[in-house]
Amino acid sequence: MSEWEKNLLDIAPYVAGEQPDNDKIIKLNANENPYPPSPAAEKALRELKVGELNKYPDANAMPLMEILAKMHGLTPANVFIGNGSDDVLALSFRAFFNSKKPILYPDITYSFYPVWCDLLKIPYKLCPVDENFRINSEDYYPENGGVVIANPNAPTSITEGKDFIVDILEHNKDCVVIIDEAYVDFGTYSAVELVSKYENLLVTQTFSKSRSLAGMRIGMAFGSEKLISCLRAVKDSYNSYPLDTAALTAACASAEDEVYFRHTVLKVMQTRDETAQTLRGLGFKVMDSATNFLFATHPDYTAEEIFMYLRENGVFVRYFKKPRIDNYLRITVGTDEQMKRLCELLTKLITG
Prior knowledge:
By secondary structure, the protein is of the alpha/beta class. The chain has helices spanning about 5, 40-45, 60-70, 85-95, 115-120, 160-170, 225-240, 245-255, 260-280, 305-310, 335-350; strands at about 25, 80, 105, 125, 145-150, 175-180, 200-205, 220-225, 285, 295, 315, 320, 330. A seven-stranded mixed sheet has the order 2-8-7-6-5-3-4, sandwiched between helices. Strands 9-10-13-12 form a four-stranded antiparallel sheet, with helices on one face. The chain has a two-stranded parallel sheet with strand order 1-11. It starts with a helix and ends with a helix.
C-alpha cells in the first residue's frame, strides 16, 4: 500500500434503503411519505422566478426560520435550518460533542449515529434497550459527554413521553442532550416546548417524513440561542448556504399549509394502525408505532425469508442484519392500496 493510500479515511458508511430500478416496485423501505407534498408547495415552486437562481439563497433560511419560530412560540434565534435532519445532526455532533467523555445513545437506534462518531472521532457508549426495545432513562444518569435519543426511536417505532425526556434532561445538565424527532408528527410528544427551560436541549426535526419533502432535504433544530449560535458557526465553517432557493420556497409554503399537513399525517396514522391490526391477525408481533412505519416479526418465518419473498414479488421493505433485530422487518406505511398488496402477499405466504 502506498503512503497516500494509508492516509485515506477508512470508515463504514451509513447504508440507506435499496432504491428500486423501476416504478412498478412498491417501495416501503425508506420511510418516505406516500402522498405528494402540499399543493401550496407545488404552486410556490411553479411560480419560482428561475431567473433569480443566479443569486445565493438566504444564508440562514430566514423566511423559514421566522415561520417555524412563530409556529412554536420561539424566536428565529432559537431555530436552525439545514439540508435535512441528517445534516443538522452531523453539524450538531461536530459542534457539541468535543469532550473526552463518551456520548450515550441506545444500542438499537438510528444507525447514522455511530458513523458520525467514527468520522469525527467522538467516543461513545451504547446503552442497551430492554427486551421490549424500551429505553431505560437511568442508563443515561452517569457522567457523559452528551446524550442522543431518537424519539420515536428508529427502527423500533417506540416512543416515550414528556416525563421520560424531562428525566433525561434533569440528570444531564452538564452536557448537550439531542432529541431526534424525525417521526414526531405521527402521534407523540414533542420536546420543542422544553427548549425555553433547558438551555442544553437541542430538538431536531425534518420535512422529509410528515411533509413529504424528502427530495428537497429540509431539516431543522430548535434550541437555546447559545446552541443555535454554535450550530451556525459550525455550518458557516463548512457551507454558509445550506438550503437552496427552491427548497426554501417549497418549505415555507408547506409549513404554512397546516390543513394539508394534518390531513396526510392522519391518513398515514390510520393506514398504519389498520395494517398493524391485519398483520397481528396473521400472527405477526408488531410493536406499537408512533411513526410512519411498523416494526414486526413472525414466529414461523424468519425476517430474511419474508424480506426475500416480498422483494421477489415487487415489494421492498427494510431488513437489518444486525444483532437483536435480525428477525424484524421495518415496513414503511404506504397508501391503502400499497398496504393492501403487502397484506395480500403476506396472507398468501402464511395461510397458503
